[in-house]
Every structure is written in structure tokens, then in C-alpha cells.
Amino acid sequence: MTSLVQQLINGLAIGSVYALVAVGYTLVFGVLRFINFAHGSIVTLGAYFGLFAVATLRLPIAGVFALALVLTGISSMGVERGAYRPLRLKGVPTLNILITSIGVSFLVENCIVVFVSADFHSFPAHILPSLPLSLGNVAKVAPVDILICAVAISLMTFLYLFLINTKTGVAIRAVAYDAPAAALMGININLTVGITFFLAGVMAAAAGVLLGMKFSVNPYLGGLFGLKSFAAAVVGGIGSVPGAYLGGYAVGLLETLGAAYVSSNFKDAIAFVLLVLILLFRPTGLLGRRIQEKV
Length: 295
Description:
Layout: H1 2-32, H2 39-55, H3 61-89, H4 94-115, E1 133-135, E2 139-141, H5 143-165, H6 167-177, H7 179-184, H8 189-214, H9 221-236, H10 241-261, H11 267-281
Antiparallel strand pairs: 1-2
Helix pairs in contact: 1-5, 1-6, 1-8, 1-9, 1-10, 2-3, 2-4, 2-8, 2-9, 3-4, 3-8, 5-6, 5-8, 6-8, 9-10, 9-11, 10-11
């Protein structure tokens, strides 16, 4: 029993990170109908901004998150403005934009290697308490795992309320539902897409900083995490924000339990096995909806 509770806590923590990254994939897919494969590298970028804030600027933890979220959000908007928008406005096939996103991913990783280094870096130990919180004889919770769950739940709640209750959120949902009709209603499509990328970058930055605190920071940090988060977004139903949350936690819990009770060698494959099974029996994902092609 003790081990099961401990594994569930571990699964919730890593699932929170997957959910944060997955929602970025689903936001961009919702408005542009393409998979932004550079999103994993945006996670890495957020981790480096956080590391810079704490190691060089000596900011407290709140300042670390604030700086990383803003800079990464702006960087994500820059990628959309510089790489994707020119192609989109020229009406090139979606496949071309998708391949461009793969190129952007490699560009970001290589720029980090060239201008920073390929070394692994750790967040300073003083940023968080080191002693775990003991839950009686049942389990122990590391402070970083508490922080991961608190930050993820706060940001996911904020994003959900933002999309439901604000004019900008309504505009994003309108563009996701029917972009040409939204444009006829006076919604600025380019501005809405840019804000969507900013929000996706903010969620990626939080995931990157949290991953950096839990593990370490390196140029390829977001690669595998990004792919597994994409699988989580598809499992939940890509295009659905609640689905991204559900998929993230499903992948995190199954991955942790599978590694603990089956074999840790299958840990990285579990997300993709789950993805295949979901696509076989429910192609739209757990909370997704079928998209009708317009003729």
C-alpha cells in the first residue's frame, strides 16, 4: 500500500508536467490545425530562462517563474511571427508548416548548444527545501513535487477560466471553431493566433522550469517530454483543453505505475502504447470531437 500511494504521488507530479505541455499542443492545433513540433524545444527554452533568472540574476522563486514565463511566451510568439505566419499567409500546405516546426526545434536546440553549452546544469539547491514532507508511514512527498502540482493546477485553472470568461478567450475559441466566420465577425485572426502561441509558451515555460528543478537542464530536455506530452494531448483528444489535462495525468500515472510494477525499461514506451490503443478504439481521443471537413 505504501508503495502504491508513493507511486500515485509520483505519477500525479509528472502527469502535471505532461498536462502543462500537452495543453500547448492542443491550443495551437485548435486554432491552426497543425502540430507544432517545436513546442518541446520551447519547454527547453523556458528551463534555460528559469536557470538564468536564478543562477545569474539571483531572483527568488516567484521572480524565476515570472521572468521565464514572460520571456518564453514572447519567444513562442516570435516563432509564430517569424516562421509560421509568413507560410500561413501564403496559403502553403499544412505539411510545410509542420516540417518547418521540426526545423525550428532543431534550430533552438543547436542555438542553445552553440551559445550556452551542451552540458547538464542543475538549479541551485537553495531554491527549494530539500527535506521531503512525510505523510505518516504511507509516503513521502518531495517539495519539488508539491511545487509542480501547485503551479500546474494554478496555471491550468487560470487558463481554463481565461478561455471561458474573457473576450480574448472567446476569440480564441471562435477562431478554433471557425476561423473564416470569426474573421467576418471582426476578430483579428493574426493577433488571436499570436496570443495563443504566447499562452502555449507560458505553459511550456512553467513545465520547463519545473522539469529543470526536478531533474536537470540540458539542450534536449524538452525532446522526449515533448513527444510524450504530444501523445498525452492526442490521448485526451487534441483540440480539447480539458482533454489535454486528462491525457497528461493519464500518461503520467500509467507511466509511473508501469515502471514500478511492470518494468522501468518500458517507461518511455507506455505513453505511445496508450496512444495506439486510444486511437484504435476512440480515434478522437477521450474528450475529442470529430472535425468535419468543409467542401
